[in-house]
Amino acid sequence: MSDIGPRLLSRKFWTKHQDRCISTVERALVLLRQTDNLPESEVDLNRLLHFCLLRASRELFPKNEIAPSTECNNQPDPDDETRMKREQKRPDFQWIFLDRYETDPLRSSRQFVVECKRIGTALRTDWMFNKNYTNHGIERFRETEWAYAKGAASGAMVGYWQSMDADDVLAEVHQEVRAKSFPDLVVLGTWKLADVSRLEHSFERPFQVSPFRLHHLWIDLRPDSLG
After folding, report:
1. Which pLDDT score is estimated for 19?
2. pLDDT at 225 over 80
3. Per-residue pLDDT tens for 39-62?
């Protein structure tokens, strides 16, 4: 019996949940931006974003019973015969779903993973935000040791945009992206000042699922835009 039907339903299942996660993140970032006295550090911003994600989820999808998990370890993958280093790694956020259309129960767990990084002017010569966005963000979805969103067709990055013009930030991100043989990020539409801008790109990975689509949501937190 052909399994084209279940595969198609599984893809539709993933697309539905991916879109719901992205919508929730986008709304949560707007709520984050409306918060008074925003901190600058990634850890503190992530903590606030966690609560904004809960508010956004209740607002947009009140019947949804799956909450985002913060700093939850990567889940085991059936392709790994033993416990791997990736299982010790903790993405910033992830939603874990059970795909009822997957015919193999061991592969039925689906995780939509979100990693967050600050972008803008570097505060130290040894910690360059726009460079780190690739090396400590995008790379984690491709490197075997991290393998964020392994087994998933897509994931997301959040950019806490704290300074610099948009085109200048993107130029610096692209410099490192190209050095690491990733495709350029494509801006969807135009830059949205004082709001969330969307970008995306796709790339190959040394494990399944590949190619992989990475969505980027940059929230403008620059002091001048906060008003």
Report:
1. 97
2. no
3. 999 999 999 999 999 999 999 999
pLDDT digits (tens, 9 = 90+) for 95-129: 999 999 999 999 999 999 999 999 999 887 778 99
| Rg of the chain (C-alpha set) | 18
Tokens 């992206």 locate to: 177
- The whole-angstrom separation of Cα 99 and Cα 109 is 6
Give the DSSP letter string of 61-84. Answer: -TT---PPEESPPPPP-TT-SS--
For range 118-145, the mean pLDDT: 94
Which of the 8 DSSP states describes residue 124?
B
What does DSSP say about strands 212-220 and 93-98: parallel, antiparallel, or unpaired? unpaired
- The arrangement of strands across the sheet holding 186-187 comes to 69-70, 93-98, 109-119, 154-161, 212-220, 196-203, 186-187
In a 10 Å sphere around its CB, with 0-12 CB exposed, 13-18 middle and 19+ buried, how is residue 162 labelled? buried
157-179: pLDDT as tens digits: 999 999 999 999 999 999 999 99
E-strand stretches of the chain: 69-70, 93-98, 109-119, 154-161, 186-187, 196-203, 212-220
Amino acid at 6: P
Ordered by start, the domain boundaries in the chain are: 4-226
